[in-house]
Amino acid sequence: MIRRAAPVDVNALRAIATAAYQSYVPRIGRVAAPTTADYEQAVHGGQIVGFSILIAQAEHPTRGK
Predict the structure, then answer these.
(1) DSSP 8-state class, residue 8
(2) Mean pLDDT in the chain?
(3) How is residue 46 annotated by DSSP?
(4) Which residues, in sequence order, are CB contacts of 5 under 8 Å at separation 6+?
(5) Closest by alpha carbon to 50, among 1, 4, 11, 6?
(6) How far apart are CA 44 and CA 38, in angstroms?
(7) Torsion sign (Cα): 23, 33, 1, 60
(8) Percentage of the chain with pLDDT > 70?
(9) How much is the pLDDT for 65?
(10) Radius of gyration of the chain from its Cα atoms, rounded to whole angstroms
(11) First-last CA distance in the chain
(12) Those residues with Cβ within 8 angstroms of residue 48's Cβ, 6 or more apart along the chain or in another chain
């Protein structure tokens, strides 16, 4: 099921983004933008319809490699 995010989803969105991007901080030297996004505002504004984070894995070929 795909649905618009609701206020109850804000903490989960933040937690997912933080978990997905925390390993990149040492590589990029700063916190990644998705971890500091204003999810509360985005949810309130109806801007979040879906949420997906794709992570390339060494054992899975990606386009352009």
Answers:
(1) G
(2) 82
(3) T
(4) 13, 39, 42, 43, 48, 49, 51
(5) 4
(6) 10
(7) negative
(8) 74
(9) 47
(10) 14
(11) 33
(12) 4, 5, 9, 13, 39, 42
Among 12, 13, 9, 35, CA closest to 22: 35
Nearest to 10 by CA among 38, 32, 29: 38
2-22 average pLDDT score: 88
Q: Would you say residue 40 has pLDDT above 90?
A: yes
- The one-letter amino acid at 37: A
CA 2-58-51 angle, to 5 degrees, is: 15
- Total residues found in the chain within this entry: 65
Q: What is the average pLDDT across 37-64?
A: 74
Q: How far apart are CA 29 and CA 50, in angstroms?
A: 28
